[in-house]
Amino acid sequence: MGTLLAFAPFIAFALVDRLVGATEGLIVGAIVSAALLLRDWAVLGRSPKILEIGTTILFGALALYAVFGGSSWSIVGVRLCVDLGLLLIVLISMALRRPFTLQYAREQVSAELWSSPQFMRTNYVITAAWALAFFVLVAADIVLLYVPALPPRIGIISTIVALIAAVKFTAWYPERRGPAEPTSESRPATPETPER
């Protein structure tokens, strides 16, 4: 649930963008992302997460540019910036060897599983699935930007399918893999499992 809540700024942006306008959508996305970041840090006492920090910076910078930059963006152009920014956040988290799903997964499992190779591998695979979904969004935005004759519903349908697939995969994959086994370093010694 935490991973899905982290995408609330993007959902808020998409709704306001569609109903009111791109600049307003960026401002709402910035407000929602900052609120989630403050909620986790100040109210719940959790450490800030890569996705939430990146989202706040992304929407904040784009909102400032939209308000003070003086240029008007097309709706597809704004979506391309948002989707590309999200893809970059996910790819950077993987490049830093901290896949963005890792922080959410650690809130769901016991600390003894955190160093398990299977736990890490599962998070890399799930983060890669989200990266693929965001790549589909970016590709759809680029096609709509350069082929404006295409109906906008192509972008909407591809976005919905990609995000639903990522959500379903996120729920399905860990169950398929089974529970991660603690490494020998993190596993307590018992008569059945002697320390090596």
Automatic annotation (TrEMBL):
The keyword Methyltransferase does not apply. The chain crosses the membrane at residues 20-38, 50-68, 74-96, 124-147, 153-173. Keywords: Membrane, Transmembrane, Transmembrane helix. It comes from the Bacteria. Residues 177-196 are annotated as: Disordered. This is Intracellular septation protein A.
